[in-house]
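Checklist before submission:
- one chain only
- standard amino acids only
- sequence pasted in full

Submission:
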Amino acid sequence: MQGHFRGHQSILSTSRTSKHMTAGLVRRLLHTVFPMNCRTCDHALDDDPVPFFCQRCWNQITPVLSPRCPRCAHPFSSPHALTHSPEHLCGPCRKHPPAYHRAWTPYAYQSPLKEAIGLLKYRGKTQLAPALARLITLTHPGPTNVDVLIAVPLHPDRLREREYNQALLLAHHLGQQWKLPVLIDVLRRTKPTLPQTSLTRRERLKNLRKCFVVAAPSAVEGKTTLLVDDVFTTGATVNECAKALRKAGAQAVYVQTLARMSAHDQ
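Returned file contents:
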C-alpha cells in the first residue's frame, strides 16, 4: 500500500513537471511568433511564466522586511522599532485609530510591481491578476479568522469606463487560493471621487465621506471581513469602507492590499 502511494505521488509529480514544461514550450512558441519585451528591462521574453515580465525582473519583487505598525502596516524607520514593544502603533494610528483592525501591505509600490499594477489597472492586462494575487499568498498563506472577502468597489461610472474592478479580480483569485467566499455588490461606492493622492488629509476625508454603503447588511452582520484592494495609498479609502462595514454589523474588518505607496509617491 505504501509503495502504491509513493508511486501515485511520483506520477503526480511527473504530471506537474510535464505540464510545466509544456506551458514553457507554448510560451516560447508564442513569443517567437509574437515577439514581446519585458515591460521593465525591455529584454525579449522567452518562456517567462508571468505575462509581460521576464523572470529576472519579476524576482526583484520582494516583501518589505522592516518593522511595521501592527495596525496600518506603515513601515518604521528604525529596525528596532518593535523590539521592546511589539504592539507599538505609529503616530497616525495613535492619533486617529482606523476603523479596520489590521492591514497587510506586503510590498512597496515600486518597479517592477508598480508597472504590473498599472498594466492591470489602466491598460486592461487582466491576465496579470493571478500572478499578482500569488504575490499576496506568498506572504499571507491564508487568514484563519476571516469569513468573507470584499473588494473595494469602484463607482458605477468608473466601472463602466474600465469594464472591470481590478480589486475584485485580485479578491477572486485570493478567494480561490484561500477557499473563502467573495461577496459581490454588497459594498457599494455611491459617489465618484477625486484621486486621493492630490488631496490633503482633510480633503481626503471630505472627498470620501459617506461614499460607501452596505447594500445587504445581513451578508456581513456578525462576520469577520477582509477588504481587498490593489494599492494602499493614504488608507482613507479602506478606512471609509471599514466604517460602512462595521456600521452594517460586521464583527471585524481587516485589510489586504498588494502594495503600499510611500509618502514620496503620494
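Reviewer check: Residues 2-58 form one domain.
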